[in-house]
Amino acid sequence: MHNRRKLKLKKFYFHPITVYLILTFLLLILSAILSGLQMQATYNTISPTTNELESTLVTVENLLNFDGMKYIFSNAMTNFLSFAPLGMLLLTLFGLSIAKSTGFLDTLCKRCLIKIDKKILTFIVIFLATISSLINDVGYVILIPISALLFLLNNRNPHLGIIAAFAGVSFGYGVSIFVGSMEVNLIPDTTSAARLIDASAHVSLTSNLFIIIAFSLILSLIGTIIIEKIIAPRFGKYKEKEELSKTEELVITDAKELEQQKIEKEHYEKRGLKAAFITAIIVIILFIYSIIPNLPYSGMLLDMEEDTYLGQLFGTNSYFQDGFTYMMALLLTLVGIAYGIGAKSIKNDKDIINGCKETFAPMGEILMLIFVVSQFTSVFKETNIGTVITSWCASAVGNVGFTGLPLIIFAIIMIGIANLFVPTASSKWQIFAPVMVPAFMQANLSAPFAQFILRVGTSITAGITPLLACFAIYIGYLNIYNQDKTKPITIHKSISYVLPYFGIIAITWILLVIGWYLIGLPLGPGVYATI
Fold first, then answer.
1. Domains of the chain: which residue ranges?
2. Which pLDDT tens digit goes with each residue over 488-526?
3. What is the pTM of this model?
């Protein structure tokens, strides 16, 4: 009897879509309970006009009532269509499907990437993922599908590619090889908060430049070791499913004819690659020209209403930032078509369109997942539970009374906890900055260092919260490449895959910050952790 019960339990698995639906229902009940208990918090924001603190009271909203149900039903479609990862993912898959169906990616892997050591390929994926936060969340939607495919084409388990890309973006979020959208979004709040203590305070865009470059390299190296030495051994060799029925044919072919076919195929592949590379160079030059200001017909992708070049490039209304995913999809599309024409793998437009079917075939499951995740995250945001918890964490940093290393470590922990409920860095910083920056400055720690600590806390827990919007892409792709459809990869299992990465990288982050602070290395040009 015991064995039968155990067998039944083993066969029962909740799909992530079902789990998110259950979580949404439980969230509604929780909102009613917490609202009844009058769960609330008060936090300060800084007025952009007077530069003075303004107190804001936030309470948990009950969505298990008439108005709550009205919000859920009336906003369901809007929440789905405005869900940021959705459009970016569809665009990426469109370009990727053409590049794959024409044979470009297969030939590229066979002739170029297959020669690269597997550890180097893993490092490249993680490094690109880590620095991708230069442009918001594009790393999730572009690198997860591409990494899965590259690992598969290189005879490696695609799950490793998915995990490497997701972990690289999440646990290295906010570090890069240059300043980007994060600086543009955070610095106004950092500067305003610093001026509460010093009216002449100024935080430059390059104030964290040295430390983010160093950390991006270090974290990528350690991430590669974690993937190859700890996570990879957990995954067996991935074997693509063969057709259920096969007919064997005995074909007698002349050896010279086989050799001639091989030579001809290689000739067309080389010609296709040459056409693809020439096309890629032309498209990239045009993209670069479109972000150079003050040249004839240039600057098309810049927001010329901004005063600084970085603002024009990464500002709120930047065409470059908003259109980056489309540019990458266009690059993959044009390169794939150029290869197909050169290699004669496509003959007409129907070949291109039909070739996209395979890539888009599993999208139904991901679209369902994105729909339920978009409802869950929007309902959670509407309850204000995350904002209340974030306010408590920020208040704790301001009132703890620590200085030096204890204050730094405590702030990292509080930001890490808040990030589980509010994964967006800029949203957290609006609440943390007015409290944390003055607390740091009064403890002889600089405002730019406080801003960097936000990156640390955010990165440490970004990959283990299901409230992260792009978590849907991660878990969706794990299930696309899951060969046993009777046992879907659950939320719990997907998080367990990255737990070793989370643990080691969290310790690495904290040790690196402590070391940087104690040694007194510059954060950026003329900027240090201490005032």
1. 74-95+255-361
2. 899 999 999 999 999 999 999 999 999 999 999 999 999
3. 0.87
